[in-house]
């Protein structure tokens, strides 16, 4: 009887594993194919890409797209601006989030429950795009990098995750003992709390940095000077130009422009995504840990 049950369970496990592997394989193909196509198209002859001949492997291998990128000043300006916005923005985000999350994690803060309720409401309701734009304009931040940094200085979800970490991972008794020894609140934060919070700080840096790197809507609304465009906005312009040129392709003399736009388009997508693609496998565990911290305890 026991052997039959064991055999039956083993058979069921094999069927279940087969189904899981099949579903996982389908998901992997669906997720990876667009990336594989972009890589192949960036190394292919643009005429073959437009003709729909590129499916998996490059056709008419060439590096003209990447040569054009190296000589495209706008792309390098966009790269520089994106790196600058990401570094400064992440630093501001991290400082503001820590300074807000730590007081809210302390049980001796009067009215912290009400404050958290007000903060949480901002996840569901906001002033809207037009009032926010008018505020940014009145503050004189339009067409400056601060318009991309200050309005989103604190992400509510990240604030809740960091506050939860402070509450659940750092014993309140440790903080009380530090106060008894004469430690000030500022010294407590810098000398005890932050050194014990390196995992959550790493998570916040990753969350905010990836958000800044991929962001383009704020720049689309607030930035007018092309010299201040981030990389994602430069990429958007290239894609729009490529589309408009292709739609007007019946006019004489536009064939070279269509091919140039098509060759650059996929290469720019790959170049703009490459830093995140390289970074993510090394920091995936931090992302998972950050999500689990926020989901287990609130």
TrEMBL record:
Name the principal localization, coarsely classed. Answer: membrane
Q: Where in the cell is it found?
A: Cell membrane
The domain of life for this entry's organism is: Bacteria
- PROSITE patterns membership: ABC_TM1
- How does the entry describe its membrane topology? Multi-pass membrane protein
Keyword annotations for this protein, in alphabetical order, are: Cell membrane, Membrane, Transmembrane, Transmembrane helix, Transport
- Fetch the InterPro entries from UniProt: MetI-like, MetI-like_sf
Which residue intervals define the domain ABC transmembrane type-1 in the entry?
A: 79-283
Q: Which residues cross the membrane?
A: 18-43, 83-102, 114-134, 146-166, 264-283
> Which family, according to the similarity comment?
Belongs to the binding-protein-dependent transport system permease family.
Q: What protein name does the entry list?
A: Carbohydrate ABC transporter permease
Q: Which organism is it from?
A: Cohnella hongkongensis
């Amino acid at each position: 009887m026991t052997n039959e049950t064991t055999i039956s369970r083993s058979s069921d496990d094999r069927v279940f594993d087969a189904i899981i592997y099949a579903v996982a394989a389908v998901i992997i193909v669906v997720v990876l194919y667009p990336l594989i196509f972009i890589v192949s198209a960036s190394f292919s002859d643009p005429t073959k890409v437009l003709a729909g001949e590129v499916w998996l492997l490059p056709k008419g291998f060439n590096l003209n797209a990447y040569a054009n990128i190296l000589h495209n000043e706008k792309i390098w300006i966009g790269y520089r601006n994106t790196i600058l916005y990401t570094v400064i923005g992440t630093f501001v985000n991290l400082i503001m989030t820590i300074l807000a999350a730590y007081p809210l994690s302390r049980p001796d803060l009067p009215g912290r429950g009400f404050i958290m309720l007000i903060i949480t409401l901002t996840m569901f309701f906001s002033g809207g795009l037009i009032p926010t734009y008018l505020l940014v304009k009145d503050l004189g931040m339009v067409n400056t990098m601060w318009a991309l940094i200050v309005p989103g200085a604190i992400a509510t979800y990240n604030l809740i995750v960091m506050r939860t970490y402070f509450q659940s991972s750092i014993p309140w008794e440790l903080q009380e003992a530090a106060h008894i020894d004469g430690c000030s609140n500022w010294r407590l934060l810098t000398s005890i709390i932050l050194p014990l919070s390196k995992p959550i700080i790493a998570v916040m840096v990753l969350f905010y940095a990836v958000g800044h790197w991929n962001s383009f809507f704020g720049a689309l609304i607030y930035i007018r000077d092309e010299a201040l465009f981030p990389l994602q906005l430069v990429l958007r312009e290239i894609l729009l130009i490529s589309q408009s040129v292709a739609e007007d392709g019946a006019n004489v003399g536009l064939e070279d422009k269509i091919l140039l736009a098509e060759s650059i388009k996929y290469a720019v997508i790959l170049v703009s995504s490459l830093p995140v693609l390289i970074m993510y496998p090394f920091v995936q565990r931090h992302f998972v840990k950050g999500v689990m911290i926020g989901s287990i305890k609130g």
